[in-house]
Amino acid sequence: MDRFVIRGGRALSGDVKVSGAKNAALPILAAALMVPGRVRFENLPHLNDVTTMLQLLGRMGVEVLLDDTGSVELDATQLSSLVAPYDLVRTMRASIVVLGPLLARGHEAEVSLPGGCAIGARPVNLHIKALEKLGVTFEVTDGYIKGRAPGGLVGGKVLFDKITVTGTENVLMAAALAKGETIIENAAREPEVSDLADCLVAFGAKIEGIGTDTLRIEGVPSLHGATHRIIPDRIEAGTFLVAAAATRGQCTLTDCEPEHMEATLVKLEEAGAKITRGDTTVSLDMEGCRPKAVDITTLEYPGFATDMQAQFVALNAVAEGVGQVTETIFENRMMHIPEMQRMGAHIDLHGATASVIGKPVLKGAPVMSTDLRASASLVVAGLVAEGETVVDRVYHIDRGYERIEEKLRRLGADIDRVRV
Ligand code: UD1
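^ thats the input. predicted complex w/ uridine-diphosphate-N-acetylglucosamine below
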């Protein structure tokens, strides 16, 4: 099991190339299940979650050909299984995104009930309820969700009670091959959902309203192969900007999409950062100043991303003033707070709101990763802390960040991966 050893206190400075988006890559890889032919995806991030998804597809009979330029070719001409087994699904909750494609292509599917990030209950009831509108019947037995639509899927009207990213993605994929029209209302508008929709359109799907909360899908009898480039990871990008801001440094991101990061950029400006937006670049400069505390409330896109919440708690912990951070998307997504308190952070947690009273410095300490974004925030805290911070269980961070320690070292951070 790996850990990071960080000796904090250095202002970060330099360039970072942003990788492809994990949360776009996972459903897009799953979409290959719907195509009886060869598809090619570019800008695939090299991450544990991506490897898990490729293994899952491999178990279903998909041929996988990776090359060293960050592209992958998949061929799902022959599917040998419509089952997503527990041993893989338990390591990655997002495996649920194979449900829609399997039902669309094979008219039946068995997916183990997911595990993954320990951030609240994270049920899949909304996925099931929505897919039932497309003619699927479900039963849950032996820890598996088993869905069947013997005559094929039929278009329907889906109104999500609550906005769900992977729920929207599952219905979008299922509807692409359903008979007739599907309308999804209260759809998630995250850029990763739009990237999946763009990819499906490249495969021959008919989708209108991409990027809005109403998606109209006219089902087609079959999809065909195409090449699609995965969008940049706005959460990875935002994490590096927060790390640079917290250390009073500077940083230029390349290969990113500034438009997708507006909520993060506005908060960083409020914190005192000078931000320069280019077409595919963002530069941040703190001009050596201590950040100012900012208030955050997480919301669905285009609101402030829950996946950036923990990193901003770390920023506020060393900022001037008091920042109120409220989590509205997930219950129990404040597990980084006790760890940061062990580093001397002054944080009062009441319900879903953390009052973060900024201190000039944190102190290095041994801390434990509990989930993907919490571990990123502990790395940020370690970079600003005096002395040595050891972040344990970095397998969480490897699920969603491509060689984070190498990218941070390029920015001047003193961070090592140690195998124990
Ligand atoms: C996705 C992202 C994750 C991000 C989250 C919110 C992927 C692979 N993961 O997760 O990084 O933090 O969106 O932006 O894209 N809910 C239900 N029933 C359901 C489904 C969801 O009650 O059937 C609830 C969840 O518990 C949560 C809220 O809806 O409170 C939003 O969750 P959702 O958007 O579904 O998150 P994911 O798609 O799992």
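The longest strand covers residues 2-7.
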